[in-house]
Amino acid sequence: MSISESTGAQDWRAVACLAPSGERLLCYGGTSAQVRAAYTGAWGEVIRDEDRPTVKAISLQRWAGLAWAGQWEHQTYLAVPATRGGKAGPDSTEPVVANS
Hints:
Blueprint: E1 12-18, E2 23-29, H1 32-46, E3 55-66, E4 69-78
Antiparallel strand pairs: 1-2, 1-3, 3-4
């Protein structure tokens, strides 16, 4: 591994984007697959019932840069779960993966 690469420890995260402004960290992990599998479960624990209507998007982000000097970069949007339990709605483009 070169000095310019990230360590890979927790390089991915899912962030709920709230309107009119603000964001909430849902989960983070070492791979995008780990974050995709965990964010729907985190939805019910992190986002309060009264805040759910204000969530406009969920951003899957990857850390770019050194561990001590870098930034989060948006990669794609994930489906916003429709219920407290984290099940995505019928028009969801993302599969719902059960947490283990």
